[in-house]
Design brief:
It is built from four helices and two strands, in the order αβαβαα. The protein is α+β, with helices and mostly antiparallel strands. Helix 1 (2-10) packs antiparallel against helix 4 (98-108).
């Protein structure tokens, strides 16, 4: 629960003032943060959700996790996720948001 919450909340929210190019017309940040899905046993194929800077839908999904012992997955299928995590596309999360939280939680379990 802590890991998934941290990944969601550390996911960057688009800030066009930091971009080199102009944002698309009617751009609203928060689509990536709000497009995380929680599933049991198999990755979700859920797609783009409405922008929400707080990630409300993603966080709401966490409430339905249920029984411990099941393989629980957190998936974001937005096509630019790899670029955000590994290619430095976000100045808000230049070292990623999944890797740093997995490392932090793993260290706390030692």
């Amino acid at each position: 629960m802590e890991l998934f919450t941290s990944v969601i909340l550390d996911s960057p929210v688009g800030n066009p003032t930091l971009w080199k190019s102009k944002p698309p017309k009617n751009y609203a940040g928060g689509t990536f943060r709000n497009s995380w899905y929680v599933s049991i046993g198999t990755p979700s194929d859920g797609g783009e959700r409405a922008p929400n800077k707080a990630g409300a839908d993603s966080l709401r999904d966490l409430q339905g996790i249920g029984d411990a012992g099941n393989v629980t997955m957190l998936t974001n299928n937005m096509p630019y996720g790899i670029r955000l995590e590994y290619e430095g596309w976000s100045k808000q999360s230049p070292a990623g948001f999944v890797r740093v939280n997995v490392a932090r939680v793993a260290e706390s379990l030692k």
